[in-house]
Amino acid sequence: MVFTCGVHAEIEGTIVYDERQPDTLIATFFIYNMNEFTDPVYSAQLLFTWDTVQLQLYTISFDSSIFLPWGGLTYSIDSTTGECHMAGAGVTPLEKDSSGIAFTAYLIYQNHDFSGADKSTVWNVIFNETTVIGRCPNGVDDPFEQLPDQFYLSQNYPNPFNPTTTINFSLAIARQVSLYIYNVLGQEIKKVDFGYAHVGEHTFVWDGTDKNNQEVISGVYFYRLKGEQITEAKKMILLK
């Protein structure tokens, strides 16, 4: 499952749960569109939590490229309460075009109990002492939770795919929307502008090429629908 949320819509994050590995939960947090955050970012705090009754943290890794100006993030892990606090700061602000994976956590299901584990994690993101994302993906404070009937982004089909796949979405309110495709590093490889899209169903067929019409390699990709007051992302797999 993929959850996307953003309180101000300048910074967006996606947590992906991948249950392909037996008894293992993989939670990956992406940061997109740093160039849309109006103020220079000199400090950041991230909180990742998990249900210790159902899950045990196996390992957590960090992508240093986003926080390279600060030399990475410092972190502390409390396995008893199920919390990982991450923080970083520096005199140099983060690069405006920064995008990618902030952290990837690997967790093990306790006693093979899979019930509700997909809703047991939440995270907070604070830039410059201001909360920009809070308590997702369980939806407690998700600003888009109140708009479930205004749009719908379908899972692509087929998935996995080769060489093409179809992405459908529907709108209950006409609005400006765009579809973005990212690689696993969070880099934007394709953007499709639908302009002021009408109410109803819309379809896009991706042929596995990037913005330069070059074929991309096999792997995991993410597609994200973004518009006025809406955003949602899902994962797809290209196999050649």
What do these coordinates show?
- With 240 residues, the chain is an all-beta fold.
- The protein has two domains: 2-136, Sandwich (Immunoglobulin-like); 151-238, Immunoglobulin-like.
- Helix content is 0%, strand content 51%.
- The protein is built from no helices and 17 strands.
- The chain has strands at residues 2-5, 12-17, 24-32, 43-49, 55-62, 74-78, 83-89, 100-109, 122-127, 130-136, 151-153, 165-171, 175-182, 188-197, 200-206, 219-227, 230-238.
- The strands form four sheets. Strands 1-2-3-8-5 form a five-stranded antiparallel beta sheet, with no helix packed on it.
- β9 and β10 form a beta hairpin.
- The two termini are 23 Å apart.
- Residues 1-10 and 135-149 have low confidence and may be disordered.
Question: What is the fold's blueprint, element by element?
Answer:
Blueprint: E1 2-5, E2 12-17, E3 24-32, E4 43-49, E5 55-62, E6 74-78, E7 83-89, E8 100-109, E9 122-127, E10 130-136, E11 151-153, E12 165-171, E13 175-182, E14 188-197, E15 200-206, E16 219-227, E17 230-238
Antiparallel strand pairs: 1-2, 2-3, 3-8, 4-7, 4-9, 5-8, 6-7, 9-10, 11-12, 12-15, 13-14, 13-16, 16-17
